Amino acid sequence: MTDEEIIQLFFQRNEVAIKETNKKYGQYCFKIANNILNNKEDSEECLNDTWMKAWDSIPPTKPRHFNLFLAKIVRNLSFNKYKSKHTNKRGNGEIALVLDELEECIAGQSDVEKIYIAEELQTTINEFVRGLPEKERNVFIRRYFYSESIKEISKRYHKSENNVRVMLNRTRKKLKAKLEKEGYLS
Amino acid sequence: MKKEELFDGFGALEDELLKRSEGGGSAMKKGKNYNKILKIGSAAACILVVLGVGVIDWNNNKETEFNTNSKDNIAIEGNEIVSTEQSKIQKEPESYVDVSMLLASNEGVTEQSLAFSCIEIGEYSAIYYKVESVDSSILKESIGSEVEGTKNWYKVSGHEDMQYLISYDRNEYSLWEFSSFQSESYAYGDVLKFIYHINSAEDIKEIIVTPADMDNTDKGKVIQKEIGTTTIIEEEEIEILYDVLSGLTCYGSNQWDRIGLGDDTPSAMLEQVRKGRYLTMVTTQGMKIDSLKYTGILGMFYEYSGIAYNALTPEEKSAIEKILNIK
B7 in a domain, yes or no? Predict the structure, then answer.
């Protein structure tokens, strides 16, 4: 079934929409959830929540890229669950490494936390990512949006793991410079 | 700012950026010589014609190939083994494999992958997406010649076109379908020529035209039924369509802003059905290309995933809509 047909089922409030979404994108969304949660049961729970969220959002939303629409929902829900489960302790799996890496980008900021608007940060990140060379950009996205492992990324783009690490390290430094310039780290 | 907040900040990345990152896979060497591809393709075509090799029954084909492998006791362990097999296959005339037999619908497989891969073909970077397919072992038996300049990307056995390719990666064979070139704009004639191996109207056997189905309400279905399905077989009509299509400029995917389908109100949706047609080109090699769609609302071709083409001139629009019976 095509995405358009599935979305049409959502618009018709036909519950088959959820079944078809699960059939077509269950594995895809599970991977994103499990990269963050590293737990089968939690990931499956997030998947169900994702279908419900899609059900509540469509209509009126009519996603242009259905898979990416779902990817953003499942990523958000999974990370919220991760945060609620790991409030005071370091988590396991790829996400812990991803977060540690991102911490490098904000190291050195003053103890007084700067107030910022989340939407503005998102815009800044979009601008930054859009301005990266294509290969660097794709590697960066696979790591910090999809939380894919270095190994997975190296296989996807046919690069050595070391090459991917170096590329990510370089890009994180650029991001830090951008965040400093934009006043997020003062 | 906390690291978690920074991670959250990545959650709203633009779709276009995310979609592009879906790519991966092997990259072909730059500066590939198209003429060489065509020469190889033509040579393969000649061999097929001379030997009179037609469509071979899949079961016979499978059995024969499995027996061969069994005799040679070849196990898939890595790329070197594939190369051995490949060189063996290249010494023999390729059997023609019907791609429809490789698609998952033939085995009731429902698993869906969203993997994209970019392969450099001459001056273009071609985007292929992974499609549901039969088991890896069957794909293994269906590989044809290796796509020049790539590592572990194969045409389907007996095919000169590159609509579908078979990839070997991580001890698995998978089937990939061409989507578009990764370029701001390119000539659709190049897609016809290099991907679908359509060099003239003579390479198109027929074009099946079905009504657009974006409105499946009762009213929408009535209109669809009235329009019905037609098959264009007249040489003159196919030639007009080919001339228009080969002269189109394609603007790649996610170009919905360029595609003027109109809004989503019930009356507009019905109009989209009235003015819309889906085309399936059947080549003389038996390939079916069903990605092209036409909307008479603005007089342009488009494809799913928002692949847009330039709007037709009034003369072209008139000629195409006459053939497609759009009033």
Answer: no
- The reply to whether B104 and B193 lie within a common domain is no
Same domain, B19 and B69: yes
Domain closes at, from B147, B181, B215: B181
Facing B19 at nearest CB: one of A28, A68, A124: A68
Nearest to A144, CA basis, from B44, B233, B9? B9
Span B313-326, pLDDT tens digits? 999 999 999 999 99
ipTM of the complex: 0.86
In a domain, B38, yes or no: yes
A107 in the Ramachandran plot: left (φ > 0), alpha (ψ -120 to 50) or beta? beta
| Pairing outcome for strands B124-131 and B249-250 | unpaired
Tell the burial category of B228 from Cβ atoms under 10 Å away from its Cβ (0-12, 13-18, 19+): exposed
Name every residue whose Cβ is closer than 8 Å to that of residue B137 and which is 6 or more positions away in sequence. Answer: B173
- What is the rounded CA–CA span in Å between residue A27 and residue A161? 25
The Cβ of residue B229 has, within 10 Å, a number of other Cβ atoms equal to 11
A78 contact residues in B (CB cutoff 8 A) = none
Asked if the Cβ–Cβ distance from A75 to B11 is below 8 Å, we say yes
Q: Does residue B34 sit at the A interface (CB-CB below 8 Å)?
A: no
Contact B1/A158, CB-based, under 8 Å? no
Alpha-carbon span B310 to B248, nearest angstrom: 6
Expressed as residue numbers, the domain containing B254 is: 186-323
User: What does the pLDDT look like over B124-136, one tens digit per residue?
Assistant: 889 888 888 888 8
Asked if residue B122 lies in contact with residue B162, where contact means CB atoms within 8 angstroms, the answer is no
Q: Among B181, B204, B225, identify where a domain stops.
A: B181
Is residue B115 domain-shared with residue B222, that is, in the same domain?
Answer: no
Q: Which residues of chain B lie closer than 8 angstroms to A137, CB-CB?
A: 17, 20-21
B25/A contact by beta carbon, under 8 A? yes
Q: Are B119 and B126 in contact (CB under 8 A)?
A: yes
Lowest mean pLDDT among B108-112, B160-164, B177-181, B283-287: B108-112
Contact B17 A125 (CB under 8 A): no
Question: Per residue in B62-118, pLDDT tens?
Answer: 333 333 333 333 233 333 334 444 444 444 566 788 888 888 764 444 444 467 788
Report if residue B290 sits inside a domain: yes
Q: For each of the domains in chain A, give its residue range(s) and CATH number, in order of start.
A: 3-85 (1.10.1740.10), 93-181 (1.20.140.160)
Nearest CA in chain A to B109: A23
B109 and B46 in one domain?
yes
What CA–CA distance (Å, rounded) separates B111 from A26?
9
